[in-house]
């Protein structure tokens, strides 16, 4: 069973950067579209970025466009979310998921536990 594991969160100051990684022990992520999602307290989970199975298409929510970048690391089978110019409103628990295709509500495998990102001075 595909199970995704997030890492790399933590505390950042406004304007700072963090790098999140998504891996799936025992699986090669190149066969899956991978999306990053976040859920802030009192809000629903939202998709913020996704990379297609072939890596040729990337999508971003308007709230993170131009600040966050998604990519595949072929040397280590993982998907990276580089988050720059972080703002307090980016504070949330971040998850990666494997949608059937980017934007789909159908997912493969299990969600990870998520990882906390806190942006505060």
What descriptive keywords fit this protein?
single chain; 121 residues; mainly beta; seven-stranded mixed beta sheet; 11 strands
Describe this structure in words.
The protein is mainly beta. It has strands spanning 5-7, 10-12, 18-23, 34-39, 46-51, 58-60, 68-73, 78-83, 92-99, 107-108, 115-119. The chain is globular.
Put the structure in a nutshell.
This protein is mainly β and 121 residues long.
Number of helices: 0
Given helix and strand content, the structural type is mainly beta
Let me know the average pLDDT: 94
Number of E-state strands: 11
Could you tell me the strand content as a percent range?
A: 35-45%
Shape: globular
Largest sheet: 7 strands, mixed
End-to-end Cα distance: 40 Å
- Series of secondary-structure elements, N-terminal to C-terminal: EEEEEEEEEEE
Write down the Rg. 13 Å
Low-confidence segments: none
Q: Work out the helicity level.
A: under 10%
